[in-house]
Amino acid sequence: MGVDMNVGTEWPFGGPQIMPDIAAGRLLVKTYAVEGGQRLTIKITSIDNSSSVAKYTDSIHALTAYGSNREIISIVDKVSPDGQLNWTAPAGQ
């Protein structure tokens, strides 16, 4: 996957006038290998909790599992309000 991050005029990347609901977000990518039937219980956290934007990263908008046969499963609904993922992978890889 390629990602182009052209900051251009720097909007909406900074300044006290940019509120969190219109500011640029962050894409955090982590990879976990899970066998079919295996339960995955982990805390989903920001990579940089010391950041000044950490307080705005407490909501997860997407979390996806991918199978070896190109299955795509949204598991965002398996995350509790405190960020705990509790999911059992279906059969397969």
Keywords:
single chain, 93 residues, two-stranded antiparallel sheet, 4 strands, 17% strand
List the helices and strands and how they pair.
Elements (H helix, E strand, L loop, with lengths): L38 E5 L20 E3 L5 E3 L9 E5 L5
Antiparallel strand pairs: 1-4, 2-3
Structure in words:
The protein has 93 residues and is mainly beta. It has no helices and four strands. The chain has a two-stranded antiparallel sheet with strand order 1-4. Strands 2-3 form a two-stranded antiparallel ribbon. A hairpin with a 5-residue loop joins strand 2 (64-66) and strand 3. The radius of gyration is 16 Å and the shape is elongated. The chain starts with 38 loop residues before the first strand and ends in a 5-residue tail after the last strand. Residues 51-57 have low confidence and may be disordered.
Largest sheet: 2 strands, antiparallel
First CA to last CA: what distance?
A: 21 Å
Gross geometry: elongated
Cα radius of gyration in angstroms? 16 Å
List how many beta strands DSSP finds. Answer: 4
Classify the helix fraction into a percent range.
under 10%
Q: What is the chain-wise order of helices and strands?
A: EEEE
Average residue pLDDT: 76
Question: What structural class do helix, strand and pairing data support?
Answer: mainly beta
Strand content bin: 15-25%
Strand order of the largest sheet: 1-4
Give the number of helices: 0
Low-pLDDT residue spans: 51-57
